[in-house]
Write a structure and sequence with these properties.
The structure holds two protein chains of two kinds. By secondary structure, chain A is of the alpha/beta class. Chain A contains 21 helices and 22 strands. Chain A has three domains: 135 residues, Urease, subunit C, domain 1; 133 residues, Diaminopimelate Epimerase, Chain A, domain 1 (Roll), CATH 3.10.310; 200 residues, TIM Barrel (Alpha-Beta Barrel). In chain A, a hairpin with a 4-residue loop joins strand 9 and strand 10. Chain A starts with 8 loop residues before the first helix and ends with a strand. By secondary structure, chain B is an alpha/beta fold. Chain B has two domains: 193 residues, Rossmann fold (3-Layer(aba) Sandwich), CATH 3.40.50; 80 residues, Hypothetical Protein Yjia, Chain: A,domain 2, CATH 3.30.1220. Chain B is 30% helix and 28% strand. In chain B, helix 2 links the parallel strand 2 and strand 3. In chain B, helix 5 packs across helix 7. The chains are: A alpha/beta, B alpha/beta. Bound molecules: zinc ion (2 copies). One zinc ion binds next to strand 13 of chain A.
Chain lengths: 575, 280
């Protein structure tokens, strides 16, 4: 065995020594042969083999082209993926492990289909089917003695009430949690078990004791009673372990926790480090701190919070890393219809919500901008977006920066002029395409009208304006399946089967960029991941079909066979 | 039931100063909840609370946040035997939404919302690209509006939104203002379903003339309407100032020349079309 390639003798010798001392066995080259490899490297878009050593890509090309690597090294050709397509490891640059950890231990009964490693949740679209499914599932309580189900939606499943639940089962505690997270309903058993009496909740207008319903602040009251069960440390662990399966099953090798500190900063962090930093974990987690949530933690001011955030990378491990990134918010949630809108606003005239005053937002953004952070801003409505863009423009004027990574997250409603402006200012977009699928019909008919609803998640324009654009799930807001996000962005077919703004569709090639190389750029990791080329980490996702060749309507159904994380194969068997 | 009042108003409108005044007047401990984001913890330090209890809250919709600080704090207040509770709403809070908070937590009785307006910044805020609607909502949805640090022209600007305001010189006792006068217009309890809040508000602006009698009977008989406030122009071209609560509907002649412009605070089931018959 001789060292690296055919370079100068001196270089070879040095490399050789190093290799012999540390890695002689591990350093065997593994060559994966595939039906086709989509590299996402524009200079060499398609190959058929990739050589990997010690978690890094040595070369991709043909068996023939990589001969110089193989001639003088131990190598093995692995043909297990010879009939499959290899793509760069998929990246979800925005999800919420802690939300997922709370939700995943519940039982899903949903109007849309959700696919999970432990079995698919079929679409349940009628009140009768809903009750039937609930009855069947009841035998196994999800939390101690309580059965908690998530996903109920009045529109499909009919109004929920205590008496309806009691008819199914009145003794065993049942809690039905609405898809919007804004409401829940309990049967007699649950009210008894949690010790909620009519006397306790008398006069509370957002609690309907008679019907067992708790909404908005009333929901807060119910959740507080449920917290010992849903935030129980063992349940939280169980949820994070389930998320691990979900992430792997979706073909992701990198995810970003886009708001560390959502519930309890230390607990979220410690549990993730404990569960995800080990050799059998098939993905890395980029950690982005929630700036406002950390203020109290840091001792009461933005300056102190910035200092705390600047020190977080000291806790980094191999898979879990903080970088110079931070998460801010402008307006309210899109699913809850409290995004801030420009004229003409909402059809029913209700107001959106700001999550802080524009002055406060600007002040916080300035602190992080001046310290050189990449700022990720949650924006949902066009006015929320406008505030982020105006602020960026001001900051650019005060202290110009290039390639600054200012990223607009979610990107619900926007207009073409804003896309142009944000492009000029060098901002990135990380869009939730799933809005188009699940919400565009509702928004068209009830919320903002067809014109604006059809162009929500205006992704085509972003690509045309040259904006670095990625797709995310915001899981649990949408399924943590990048191929599903890509499918929506490419087809823009909503849940009613209607095509929404064909002009804003993107090509399958662009869709693939959005869940690989662009997502890597948005996380500042494009030098390491996001495409298959010499020198990058050997993160791959193995697909049964070619996402750039199949009927675009089939993209979401492509079978994911395995992932490779830094060269190690993690098969996906049970589908 | 513990009486609860909400103090709303944009950033810098004097909420903290008012609460400090109130704490000086209070004879027994009262609870203060500061509902704001970010560095408003500084405000919390400004509030001098020797006997009374101050808790700071962060906000966010339950979609994003399961540990409901406001709820937990209200529960704590119950244990602490306070005389009354004041919530200092955040600068961007929509008053009717906060009112729902007050209405829905077991053990509390909402007296009303007082909105503060700083005269000096009013004009600027009312034309602000981002917060003009929020600030207008804070003024039009409040039960009482208190104007401070103002010049005459700012008074005129405010008068265009509401005639029902008082200035700081007119306040004798903040305690009375918040816990006695508010109580007079106390609300009934409502249990209605709704998406994000029980009450919604709707601004009726129209050039059409209105029949006052029919409007009065409409308002008195429509159970979906919680409150109405604003100006109404009748067939004779006269402008009336309307003040309607569940208990009371009052029209008084106004010399303010305007087309009909009023805010209706209503539950979700109000059908706007049902207003048709009130037009002259
Ligand atoms: Zn968000
Ligand atoms: Zn998010």
């Amino acid at each position: 065995m001789v060292g690296v390639g055919g370079s100068s003798p001196l270089v070879s010798t040095i490399s050789l020594n190093t290799f012999f001392i540390c890695y002689s066995y591990l350093c065997m080259i593994k060559v994966y042969k595939a039906k086709s490899i989509i590299t996402m490297n524009p200079s060499l878009p398609r190959t058929e083999a990739v050589a990997v050593r010690d978690g890094l890509i040595l070369e991709t090309g043909s068996l023939d082209s990589m001969k110089p690597w193989l001639e003088n090294n131990d190598y093995e050709i692995d043909k297990q993926f010879r009939d499959s397509i290899i793509v760069p490891g998929l990246i979800d640059p925005h999800l919420h492990p802690s939300m997922a950890a709370v939700l995943l231990p519940t039982f899903f009964i949903t109007a849309m289909e959700w696919r999970f490693p432990w079995g698919d949740t079929p679409a349940t679209t009628s009140p009768e089917d809903y009750d039937k499914r609930l009855k069947e599932a009841l035998t196994n309580p999800t939390h101690k003695d309580i059965f908690i189900t998530w996903g109920h939606h009045d529109l499909w499943h009919g109004p929920m009430s205590r008496s309806r639940l009691n008819k199914i089962e009145s003794n065993k505690p049942i809690v039905v949690w609405n898809r919007s997270f804004h409401e829940l309903c309990m049967n007699d058993g649950a009210l008894d078990y949690l010790g909620i009496t009519e006397e306790d909740v008398k006069g509370a207008s957002q609690i309907d004791f008679e019907r067992g319903r708790f909404f908005e602040l009333g929901l807060g009251y119910a959740i507080q009673k449920l917290n010992p069960y849903i935030l129980d440390p063992d349940k939280f662990k169980e949820g994070l372990l389930k998320l691990k399966e979900v992430v792997h099953y979706g073909g992701q090798t990198t995810i970003a926790d886009m708001a560390v500190g959502l519930f309890d900063f230390d607990n979220e962090l410690n549990t993730q480090f404990a569960l995800y930093e080990n050799d059998d974990n098939p993905f890395r987690v980029e950690l982005i701190a929630h700036a406002t949530a950390l203020i109290q933690h840091a001792g009461g001011s933005n300056i102190k919070a910035e200092k705390l955030i600047s020190e977080l990378p000291e806790r980094n491990t191999h898979r879990l890393n903080f970088r110079k990134r931070v998460k801010l918010f402008t307006d309210g949630a899109f699913f809850a219809q409290v995004a801030q809108l420009m004229e003409p606003g909402y059809i029913d005239g209700h107001e959106g919500e700001w999550l802080s005053t524009p002055e406060q937002f600007e002040e916080v953004a300035r602190i992080y901008w001046n310290q050189g952070y990449a700022i990720h801003v949650h924006v949902t409505g066009d006015l929320g977006l406008e505030l982020a863009i105006d602020t960026l423009e001001k900051l650019q004027f005060e202290k110009p920066r290039f390639n600054h990574g200012f990223t607009l997250e979610h990107f619900g409603l926007s207009n073409p002029e804003q896309v142009h402006r944000l492009s000029k200012l060098g901002a990135n977009v990380s869009a939730n395409a799933y809005y188009v699928h699940e919400l565009s019909d509702l928004y068209a008919n009830h919320t903002v009208g067809f014109e604006r609803a059809s162009s929500m998640s205006r992704i085509g324009s972003c690509f045309r304006e040259g904006v670095t654009t990625s797709l995310h799930s915001d899981f649990t807001m949408a399924p943590a399946q990048p191929l599903m996000s890509m499918w929506v962005a490419v087809n823009r077919i909503n849940e009613k089967g209607v095509l929404m703004s064909p002009e804003e569709r993107i090509s399958p090639q662009q869709g693939m960029e959005a869940i690989t190389i662009n997502a890597a750029r948005i996380l500042g990791l494009d030098h390491e991941i996001g495409s298959i080329r010499a020198g990058k980490k050997a993160d791959f996702t193995v697909l049964a079909q070619d996402p750039l060749e199949v009927d675009p309507m089939m993209i979401k159904d492509i079978k994911i066979e395995a992932t490779l994380f830094e060269g190690k194969v993690f098969p996906i068997s049970n589908r | 039931m513990i009486p609860l009042t909400i103090i709303s108003g944009y950033l810098g409108s004097g909420k903290t100063t008012l609460i400090n005044q109130l704490l000086k007047e209070a004879k027994k401990p009262i609870g203060v909840l500061v509902n704001d984001f970010g560095e408003l913890n500084i405000d919390e330090e400004l509030i001098n609370n020797e006997d009374s209890l101050t808790l700071s809250l962060s906000n966010g919709c339950v979609c994003c946040k399961l540990n409901d600080d406001l709820g937990i704090s209200l529960e704590q207040m119950k244990e602490l035997n306070v005389e009354a509770v004041v919530i200092e709403a955040s600068g961007v809070a929509i008053p009717i939404k906060i009112a729902n908070y007050g209405l829905s937590w077991p053990g509390f009785r909402l007296l009303g919302i007082l909105s503060l307006v700083k005269g000096k910044s009013l004009k600027h805020l009312l034309s602000d690209k981002f917060v003009s609607k929020t600030v207008k909502a804070q003024i039009t949805q409040a039960d009482r509006v208190l104007l401070n640090r103002f010049e005459q022209e700012e008074k005129d600007a405010l008068s265009e939104l509401t005639e029902d305001y008082l200035t700081e010189e007119e306040v004798g006792s903040y305690w009375n203002l918040l816990f006695k006068e508010m109580a007079a217009s106390s609300r009934p309890e409502i249990t209605e379903d709704n998406h994000h809040s029980i009450f919604q508000s709707f601004v009726l602006e129209t050039e059409k003339l209105i029949n006052i009698e029919r409007l009065e009977s409409y308002l008195n008989n429509n159970t979906s309407i919680e409150r109405a406030k604003g100006w109404v122009r009748d067939e004779q071209g006269k402008t009336w100032l309307l003040q309607m609560t569940r208990n009371d509907c009052n029209f008084s002649i106004s010399n303010y020349e305007t087309a009909t412009r009023m805010v209706l605070v209503h539950t979700k089931d109000l059908d706007i079309k049902s207003l048709e018959p009130v037009y002259a």
